[in-house]
Write a structure and sequence with these properties.
The chain is of the alpha/beta class and about 210 residues long. The chain is built from four helices and twelve strands; from the N terminus they run βαββββαβββαββαββ.
């Protein structure tokens, strides 16, 4: 099979990443060639009312390889969680396009990398928590979101706990996305920690203290 990158923004990084994918496929017993940067490739643009589908990664199969489509796609989907360069831009969704005999035989969306982030938020009351949850979900990109639940009252202060799921390349980027969204609602990040005994980030937000305009 032949792997072709259509990434025009980061051609060298994308090519290097395909080399890693090729090695993984070879370990599974496949014969793989990676197209050189700038080499001719198969391409077809698809458009819909929602987004343009950009053929970010092509897999071109030979006559004897058609029966391996499902096995190849399984490897690609597992690999997709670690990729850096093969991703959607400007609203486009990253896809793998499988070609056979100059025709597209399968188009598969690549799962996007997501991070779970635990939250603790100080709010005025339950009604304010519901309004906050709605506002944050409206502000986050489509596909990202959070859910808050009552965590109790301490010394007259009401707390909500929750979890957010955010698409990002690295954890710090996911945290920054949430910090910006909460900041737009007048809340400041008072602590960035990790959940005890787990590898999940924990963000704690609260209203600004008196005289503070964060």
């Amino acid at each position: 099979m032949r792997l072709e990158s259509l990434d025009i923004d980061h051609p060298q990084g994308a090519h290097d990443e395909l080399d890693g994918l090729a090695d993984e496929l070879r370990r599974r017993g496949f014969t793989v060639q990676v197209a050189e940067i700038g080499a001719p490739h198969w391409s077809r643009m698809h458009e819909s009312a929602e987004h343009a589908l950009v053929d970010v990664l092509n897999v071109v199969l030979e006559e004897s390889e058609r029966h391996m489509i499902d096995a190849v796609i399984d490897v690609l989907v597992a690999w997709a969680a670690t990729r850096c360069f093969f991703r959607g831009r400007a609203g486009a969704k990253p896809h793998v396009v499988v070609w056979f005999d100059a025709e597209i035989v399968r188009t598969v969306p690549l799962p996007e990398k997501r991070f779970d982030v635990l939250l603790q938020v100080e709010v005025a009351n339950l009604a304010a928590a519901k309004e906050l949850e709605h506002a944050i979900n409206e502000a986050l990109p489509d596909g990202d979101g959070l859910k808050l639940t009552a965590a109790g009252d301490v010394a007259g202060v009401h707390y909500q706990a929750g979890i957010a799921e955010v698409r990002a390349e690295v954890e710090q980027q996911a945290a920054a996305t949430l910090q910006e969204a909460f900041g737009a609602q007048g809340l400041r990040l008072v602590r960035h920690d990790r959940w005890p005994g787990d590898d999940v980030p924990l963000l704690i937000f609260a209203p600004p203290t008196d005289g503070q305009l964060d």
